[in-house]
């Protein structure tokens, strides 16, 4: 849990650094730097028997390219969203990602989804409508980018599930590294410029390094705890977003935005509880099957003797 909390804190502060670069650097250039600094964590995840070339040698090429494209779109869109919107507002849209995963799971994976899952989807959209209040408040490119980031991240999760038989971890990580590097690298070519101040370099390093650190901490957390437990502290990102928005960017939130964030959090908690119950049932079923197998083996052994 502590590793997950550290990961989400790193992601949040990294997002704040990207927002500080608004007007100084092109969003694609900032997102590109995140891919560059991602190489820093490779020595920590590469095992002795693995080769760094496994990053670009996937077993399932189609899913590798799909995930690379999704991560590229997500990084570029999220940087642009944070540059244009208050952090809590951008996060409220990005927190729709689990809900888009639910929808894509039904459409693409043909998974059965319970009424509780659909309730979480509806609550999530209601929360976003409360935050955005279309027709009352003007919407801009930042809102579209935040929504696009949520959809792209959901697509990345679906691609990860479809590539669940991929045996090499570096291949899975490589897609999330190469995608932003290539995609953002091409798009920034027309607008890239050398950071003009030491301050810009510090912000750029802070964004890239903390994003890489967050990924490393998240991988360590998922190796030590079930995925549903690691996902729960994600909502501390919203707390970080509110605090940083107020203290660093002097952007306080109105009461309706807090109401929308609360509804979104309830939606996410409902989705988390649903997944936890599902995983516990699956674990219980596996334990029962192993128990039956042991009993059958004992009976067979006694009969044979």
From TrEMBL:
GO cellular component: membrane
SUPFAM superfamilies: Multidrug resistance efflux transporter EmrE
TM ranges: 28-45, 65-85, 91-109, 116-135, 141-160, 172-194, 200-220, 232-249, 255-273
Domain of life: Bacteria
EamA domain ranges (all copies): 2-132, 141-267
Keyword annotations of the record: Membrane, Transmembrane, Transmembrane helix
Coiled coil: none
Listed name of the protein: DMT family transporter
Lineage: Bacteria, Pseudomonadati, Pseudomonadota, Alphaproteobacteria, Acetobacterales
């Amino acid at each position: 849990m502590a590793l997950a909390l550290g990961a989400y804190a790193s992601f949040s502060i990294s997002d704040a650094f990207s927002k500080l670069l608004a007007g100084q650097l092109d969003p694609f250039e900032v997102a590109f730097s995140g891919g560059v600094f991602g190489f820093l964590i490779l020595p920590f995840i590469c095992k002795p028997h693995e080769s760094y070339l496994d990053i670009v040698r996937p077993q399932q090429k189609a899913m590798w390219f799909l995930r690379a494209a999704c991560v590229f779109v997500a990084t570029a869109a999220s940087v642009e969203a944070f540059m244009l919107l208050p952090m809590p507002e951008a996060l409220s849209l990005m927190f729709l990602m689990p809900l888009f995963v639910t929808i894509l799971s039904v459409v693409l994976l043909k998974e059965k989804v319970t009424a509780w899952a659909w309730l979480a989807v509806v609550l999530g959209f209601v929360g976003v409508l409360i935050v955005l209040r279309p027709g009352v408040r003007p919407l801009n490119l930042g809102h579209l980018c935040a929504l696009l980031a949520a959809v792209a991240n959901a697509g990345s999760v679906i691609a990860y599930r479809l590539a669940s038989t991929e045996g090499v971890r570096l291949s899975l990580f490589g897609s999330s590294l190469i995608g932003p590097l290539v995609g953002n690298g091409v798009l920034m070519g027309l607008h890239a410029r050398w950071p003009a101040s030491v301050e810009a370099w510090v912000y750029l390093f802070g964004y890239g390094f903390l994003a890489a650190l967050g990924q490393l901490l998240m991988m360590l957390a998922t190796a030590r705890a079930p995925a549903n437990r690691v996902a729960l502290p994600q909502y501390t990102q919203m707390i970080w977003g509110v605090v940083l928005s107020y203290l660093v960017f002097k952007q306080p939130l109105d009461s309706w935005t807090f109401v929308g964030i609360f509804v979104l959090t309830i939606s996410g908690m409902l989705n988390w509880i649903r997944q936890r119950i599902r995983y516990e049932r699956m674990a219980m079923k596996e334990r029962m099957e192993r128990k039956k197998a042991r009993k059958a083996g004992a009976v067979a052994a006694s009969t044979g003797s």
